Amino acid sequence: MISQQLNDSITRVGPDSAAGAVLRCYWQPAALIEELEYQNPAPVNLLGERLALWRDDTGSFVLAARKAEAGEPSVYHPGPEQIEAEPGGAVYPVVEKKGVVFAYLGDGPVPEFPNLDCFRADDSHVFAFKGLWECNWLQALEIGIDPAHASFLHRFLEDEDPDEGYGKQFRDQVANTNIPMTRVLREFPRPQIEVDETNYGLKITALRHLENGQTHVRVTNQIFPEAICIPMSREMTITQWHVPVDDETCYWMTMFTSFRDPVNKALMREQRLEEHVLPTYAPLKHKGNHYGYDPKEQESVTYTGMGLDINVHDQWAVEGMGAIQDRTQEHLGRSDVAIIRYRRMLREAIAALDRGDRDALPMQGEETSGIIGPLSNDTIAPTANWSGASREADLERRSGCPWDASV
What share of the chain is helix, strand, coil (3-state, %, to 5)? Predict the structure, then answer.
């Protein structure tokens, strides 16, 4: 457990907050380009600031502070005629990456982008989407760096045909086997977890030791300050930011990256629009309708009884903690090692900024553009050489990629 003062310092995101100062040292995914199809200018609510995004006469993106009405809700979509730039307000640097507009809201030097797979893949191999969660960004991030939760929260009680699971996480077979990923998670729920610090954040390895000297290796990553990179299937990864709207609301902003075939963007968008409403990208399942809970489904299909979309399972878990999780009452255990290590990194970054040492933060130096990957996959490997075999499986996948995925 931690003190209330510390919990406030690592969760609050306003301009004068400790964690907010760290987040403002990095590019933040502000909006999907497609949002300008609904409203131009479009409202952007980011890090507690009310902004407007539009294209100017040259086609360039502009992000500026906008006038906000008294009592305006954090997720509010006024019509274009109601959106006005704040006279004399800040205008922020923006960059478009694979259908997402990134913004830099900080002072000082603008950082480089790391050369992550989601940024260097061909446009045809990346699909972006987002969704709204009514909770603080940190608890949204922390569920993504907890490898053990998938065996319970996302437990499927029956295995469906993997060929019908395109665009859905955990619905594939484990690489080089005919074992459904859902079965591995269900039958081996308590992984051994190893965490390594990297130049981008954390590499998190979950080991589920099977029979006959074999181990299922699942490598995921925390990309500082608020992103994760995880395997979605044998051929696709997810890079997902947990973007603060304000202290009590956030968006998950995700880039799906394919190593082999072009992404079926129309299908993946259709799948996600079945669960979300535009233009807010709010989920159709929420606290007001009990996240679609069905006790009959829970009896034989899923652990939660809340449908097959794992985003709904995560949403229920993180929103159920309250708008800002009360960490003064928590008791972390062995499986929370990645959460513990991440909080230490965040606190060290806060302390570094307090003493004026921004260079001590991850991905703030000249070497940032040289950060590539990261490795993120599922595979079955000999227990005696799981680390080397996992890397070889990743290199094999990259070697046949139509875009430059070399590491």
Answer: 30, 25, 40
